[in-house]
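Tokens as discussed.
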């Protein structure tokens, strides 16, 4: 194990078929080091740029504002765009916004924070 990283020892029992013999083994798992604040902020800015480019792709020439507010564990991305074009962002039965939220969750999860999208009304 690397320095400063604590490991977890897991003991599992394996049952043999004929002899009913019980063997145990140990498996060590490394715990990932936390992501630095600078890396999280860089990921937040990258997600903001991706959201802006997505909005420009579905509604070209539209002035949409994407801002975010950071909490202790969650980042809220607020999207402010004209009301008549929000339907394009949401998509048929919410498909666009659901897909965008999945991408957002994957990217923020890799940076070890939670993120949600809020459409400003």
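Sequence:
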């Amino acid at each position: 194990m690397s320095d400063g990283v604590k490991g977890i020892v897991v003991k599992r029992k394996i049952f043999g078929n004929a002899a009913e013999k019980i063997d145990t083994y140990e498996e060590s798992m490394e715990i990932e080091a936390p992501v630095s604040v600078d890396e999280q902020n860089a990921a937040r800015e990258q997600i903001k740029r991706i959201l802006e480019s997505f909005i420009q792709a579905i509604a070209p020439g539209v002035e949409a504002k994407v801002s975010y507010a950071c909490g202790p564990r969650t980042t809220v991305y607020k999207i402010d765009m004209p009301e008549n074009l929000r339907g394009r962002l949401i998509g048929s039965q919410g498909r666009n916004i659901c897909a965008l939220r999945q991408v957002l969750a994957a990217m923020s999860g890799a940076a070890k924070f939670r993120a949600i999208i809020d459409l400003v009304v």
